Amino acid sequence: MRIRSTFAAGLASGGLAAVALAGPASSPAAASAALVDTERQPVISYNTTFVPPGSTARVRGIYPASDRTVVTLHVWGLAPNREYGAHAHKYGCSSTDPTAAGGHFQHVEGGASDPGYANPDNEIWLDFTTDGEGNGAAQAVVDWQFPAERRAQSVIIHDHHTATGPAGSAGTAGPRYGCLTVPF
Ligand SMILES: [Cu+2]
How far is the CA of 3 from the centre of ligand 1 (A)? Predict the structure, then answer.
């Protein structure tokens, strides 16, 4: 019963198209509503040192319950042994303009560097550290879902792990090095 009501909640909040997009990768045993799966694809690079040609990434999202969202990020081929920041952003990627993706998606909208809004409970933070081959992964879990009329549309990869702390620095992670459009 729990599984059925969860799935219905996911569909009601806009999951229908995402379920169709998720395709055969979904396990028939999964109790969760699929949100998005980009499959592994090239990352748009704004910096060839830190997101070298050939870098790839995959973002997956699920609604495991009606009050929860889980997003995972995998990256391949970035600079080795290095900390990066990453977040869900408001708009899709431009191939040339790192700012086109806008600010961080915030569940409750407020100041971009106000710790009351710029925190991993209100935004989707996907910071990771690459291994010796430049591969890495991260997962974010939040207790809300995207409103049907306002959804994140990309994941941006930044210079360093995301700062917490006082207003002005909270939520900052340095220059934007790469972008993946994600139809959340
Ligand atoms: Cu960001």
Answer: 33
